Amino acid sequence: MAGAVALATEHLSQTLAGKPVYVVGFSTGAALALNHELENINLNKPTAFSGMIFLSPAVGLAPIAAGAYWQAKLGGLLGQDKLYWNSIQTEYDPFKYSSFAVNAGDVVYQLTQRNRTLIADLSPAQVKLIPPMLTFQSVVDNTVSSLAVVKQLYQLMPAFQGHELVLFDVNRIRSHNYLLIQDPLAEFAPYWLTNPLPYRLSLIENSPHNEPHVRVRELSHKFPVEETVELALTWPAEVYSLSHVALPFPIEDPLYGH
């Protein structure tokens, strides 16, 4: 996968002939884009991207992901082919697998561990070479770790480097609040109580005086106090969180829009 990213990036750079290249990565794709730049920096090579946009990046996974390798090994030992798969579905999408192989989970886990090692080994001067990142992440995500995006990536960035994080809170209308056993934002608080933040944080949350509507609350190293802007947006009915954030496709799209 890393080789495919390298080939595509090289092709784009040659085709654009010196124009800036911006990469958009979703989930594992975001981790691969980050890895591409971290590997370049680690090898003292020039970075390829002028900026990186991440959607629910696979910065960290649940601890159980580390067991994917052993699940596949157990399947081979017992002769149980089904243990090689977390789910098996009908394959109808030419651009996305419907089934999920255990090996895929292991590969993504190895990728996240590699990125963590690379970041930890970079010098302060090298960390400053990471291109500006703009990330969209829900505080509730059952696929990747939302906290890892903050703890293992953004909190490690130096200030004034143009990094931005947009977090979507859960829908906190009163009827939903009764269902929350634990506030999903609570584990993020320790990282935001120490100001100034080394990045710009935009939290999309319910407007306290108009429940279905949302607002954006911004924190940044540039602002000594919070800035709040009411948005002309409302939570759709029966939507409780955005979970693993993805981009919608327009109805006119020839493949996904019909």
Quick summary:
The protein has helices spanning 2-16, 28-42, 68-78, 102-121, 124-127, 146-151, 174-177, 189-192, and strands spanning 22-26, 51-55, 85-87, 100-101, 133-138, 164-168, 200-207, 210-220, 223-234. With 258 residues, the chain is α/β, with parallel strands linked by helices. Strand 1, helix 2 and strand 2 (51-55) form a beta-alpha-beta unit.
Please give the structural blueprint:
Blueprint: H1 2-16, E1 22-26, H2 28-42, E2 51-55, H3 68-78, E3 85-87, E4 100-101, H4 102-121, H5 124-127, E5 133-138, H6 146-151, E6 164-168, H7 174-177, H8 189-192, E7 200-207, E8 210-220, E9 223-234
Parallel strand pairs: 1-2, 2-5, 5-6, 6-7
Antiparallel strand pairs: 3-4, 7-8, 8-9
Essential attributes:
alpha/beta, seven-stranded mixed sheet, 258 residues, 31% helix, 22% strand, Rossmann fold
Question: What report would you give on this structure?
Answer:
The chain has 258 residues and is an alpha/beta fold. The chain has a single domain (2-234), classed as Rossmann fold (3-Layer(aba) Sandwich). It has 8 helices and 9 strands. A 7-stranded mixed sheet has the order 1-2-5-6-7-8-9, with helices on one face. It has a two-stranded antiparallel ribbon with strand order 3-4. A hairpin with a 2-residue loop joins strand 8 (210-220) and strand 9 (223-234). Helix 2 runs parallel beside helix 4 and helix 3 packs antiparallel against helix 4. The longest helix is centred in the middle third of the chain and has 20 residues, at 102-121. The chain is globular and about 50 Å long. The two termini are 29 Å apart. The mean pLDDT is 86.
